[in-house]
Write a structure and sequence with these properties.
The protein is α/β, with parallel strands linked by helices. It contains 7 helices and 17 strands. The longest helix has 18 residues.
Length: 342
Amino acid sequence: MTKKYRFSRRKGHSLVRESPGIVIAPTYTPHADVVLFHGNCLELLASIPSGSVQLVVTSPPYNIGKSYEKKISLTKYLEQQETVIKECVRILSNTGSICWQVGNFIGKDEIVPLDIPLHGILTKLGLRMRNRIIWHFEHGLHCSKRFSGRYETINWFTKTGSYVFHLDPIRIPQKYPGKKYFKGPKAGQLSCNPLGKNPGDLWVIPNVKHNHVEKTIHPCQFPVELIERLVLSMTNRGDTVLDPFIGVGTTAVAAIRHGRKAAGAEIMSEYLKIARERITLAGTGQLRTRPMDRPIYDPKNSTRSLPAGTYGNGKARTDQLFLLDGGRKRSSKKSLKEMICA
């Protein structure tokens, strides 16, 4: 059990040191490393001074009827989102960023990409869009009457034209590392940045499902790696990162791991309990996460690719192939080579 160190009250706030160096508070105070507020995010936002947050990053409920949300009309949903976004803009510093990560609203007869109406709300509030980042993943529901959804968007907006952005900490490996110019005045010099390349606006990062190392009970959990890229590129050490819908604390975990402060609100106590535990482990370096920029597929590991004819239990059936013939299965005694070359 983690040992707790209690501090004296400051302006009505009870500060609790959950691990060496990490101070968690239940309400906003600049003295805390992390603020975990139990309740409506608007109450937390109202207590935060204007211009004091460097990065707002969140994945709000998508209004699709998940266990933690009550489905309402799209119009009402967007009105609620606008109310929250207005407060986020108020507390955002002039060099700060807002990253609003959303998917699709599932209606009765159609889907609505939520980033489309939200773009109008964010620009109406004076924000400027810098990127529409596509987050691609492989796991999710399998649809029978449309293509299965395998991406969501991270919509990056800034408050002004002068904003914090650091590319070097989030560079990814070059496709051809060490490649050099072979002719011209730069012959023999590196033709690419030795620190890596810009990750671009298409991010392939596994979503947190089933046996993912970061999986908790939350049905729509952020992968830590996703937030780490935003934290490292859009903030400096000591800055505050806010997530108005913090869930199980992934945003705070990413912030704490890189020397930033964090604040967030959550209405479900069981999620806040998990968030506190994860933040405590992150503060001591014991939280297990998927490493940043680990390849989804390792081409050097040939066992990840099954040979032709392999299925089921992983054993190749080369003695007998089953083919479809007018909707009926028929057996073929031809060899695998004969079938492939036929």
